[in-house]
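Input record, target 12 of the design panel.
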């Protein structure tokens, strides 16, 4: 593979790390929860879980969350640690 055609750029600023601004995770205390506006689906639960838990894992110290399907077919997120 030839790399002759790839141009190297200099002095390009590194973007700020992505944060989870979609949900009020930073403001939550242990025991707090919120109801997600989307109705339950496996796909929605997976996406939300990955986003919330991934953000919590990157925090120092780590923050843990639990997600559950509610009786009215929504998704609720709790801060558990």
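The sequence produced for target 12 reads:
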């Amino acid at each position: 593979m030839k790399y002759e055609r790839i141009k190297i750029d200099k002095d390009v600023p590194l973007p700020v790390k992505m944060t989870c601004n979609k949900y009020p995770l930073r403001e939550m205390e242990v025991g707090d929860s919120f109801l997600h506006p989307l109705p339950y689906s496996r796909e929605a639960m997976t996406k939300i879980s990955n986003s919330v838990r991934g953000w919590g894992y990157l925090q120092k110290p780590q923050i843990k969350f639990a997600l559950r399907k509610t009786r009215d077919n929504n998704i609720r997120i709790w801060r558990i640690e």
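The helical segments are 42-58.
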